[in-house]
């Protein structure tokens, strides 16, 4: 095994729990698009809750990682967001991101992985996927993991979360070299199982907009694992909860402890 392959193995071992090979990831990277949205006014505080609650990793922007480094060193896996350059004020509401940080620069910070979007079916699909492919090459050269956040366009004939689109997106991300796929839940265990089986890389479910309730989010986590997914990467469904710490602990119990949502939710009350 080469030094770079060894690096990837060590980093993935910090993102996936060694005993279950699953993961609970708390995403706090929304500030580069929405600014200080409710619940994420202080992303470092949320990261500290992720550590306390037993989450396996966080997704954060480079600026947040710098500010949180001393509080999280050696306690949780770290995934750096390397794309963005598109805010809620942009008049172009299309789905697109541009690379804003190099893999080299965040690898020098000591992160375990990087995350970048891969949009399919959009007008800027080629730009998005080219950037993702280049990020995969850079991750390979730096020995860090790549998380590909694969999202179908909202403007396609079928819903973006349809099995057909999500399966295509997930397979494409893994073909480009991603070590972990973050994508939409397709609505059922059977349909998401097809996504997982068609991907060459482990798959986690993205939380997306806040769900109707904490129980809804816990059921999605349970279904993802039942389908063969390796866990979840939730943001708003954690830090916009009335009890963010309790929600993190509940997700850990569902994903790693194989508890039912109703059992795990007892700590939310």
Task: Give me a quick take on this structure.
This protein has about 270 residues and is an alpha/beta fold. It has a single domain (about 5-269), classed as Alpha-Beta Barrel (TIM Barrel), CATH 3.20.20.
How would you portray this structure in words?
- It is a single chain.
- The protein has 269 residues and is of the alpha/beta class.
- It has twelve helices and ten strands.
- Strand 8, helix 8 and strand 9 form a beta-alpha-beta unit.
- Helix 3 packs across helix 4 and helix 7 runs parallel beside helix 8.
- It is globular.
Helix content: 40-55%
Cα end-to-end separation? 48 Å
Radius of gyration: 17 Å
The description of the largest β-sheet is: 8 strands, parallel, barrel
Unreliable residue runs: none
Quickly give the structural class: alpha/beta
Give a count of the beta strands, DSSP E runs of length 2 or more. 10
| Secondary-structure element series | HEHHEHEEEHEHEHEHEHEHHH
Question: What is the fold named in CATH at topology level?
Answer: TIM Barrel
Beta-strand percentage range = 15-25%
Supply the CATH architecture: Alpha-Beta Barrel
Query: Whole-number average pLDDT?
Result: 93
What is the helix tally? 12
Spatial order of strands in the largest sheet: 1-2-3-6-7-8-9-10
Number of domains: 1
Which shape, going by the Cα principal axes? Answer: globular
Quick one: CATH class? Alpha Beta
